[in-house]
Amino acid sequence: MNRELLKIKNSSSSSIEKEKQKLQKLLDSHLMTDENWVNFKQAFQEEYPEYYNGLMSDFSDLTESNLRIITLLKLELSNQEISSLLGITIDAVKKSKQRLRKRFGQKYEELFVGN
Q1: Which domain of life is it from (predicted)?
Q2: Mind listing the pLDDT tens digit for each residue in 88-113?
Q3: Helix, strand, coil share (%) of the chain residues, nearest 5
């Protein structure tokens, strides 16, 4: 599907393999529904606990919509892949990214730093 998903699939760490499979399954099933988003977010939190907790601590006012875009960008998905997963247009993805950049300015890059 894309580079990051291939990295996840090919990771040698057996202790997190199950979580990676769960993330992959959720990504494959699309995140349009609220239920799928909740399941994906939980799997993402389990896979990247330090990153997610830091994100929530440093950027506590993020909306669920912001989190969807940020977590998918963290997985290095393309605008096309994000639009397909969320059931929105590529332009909507680009606009969301622009709004995040405008809102956080120089701190924008910090949204993606961490484990």
Answers
A1: Bacteria
A2: 899 999 999 999 999 999 888 888 87
A3: 75, 0, 25
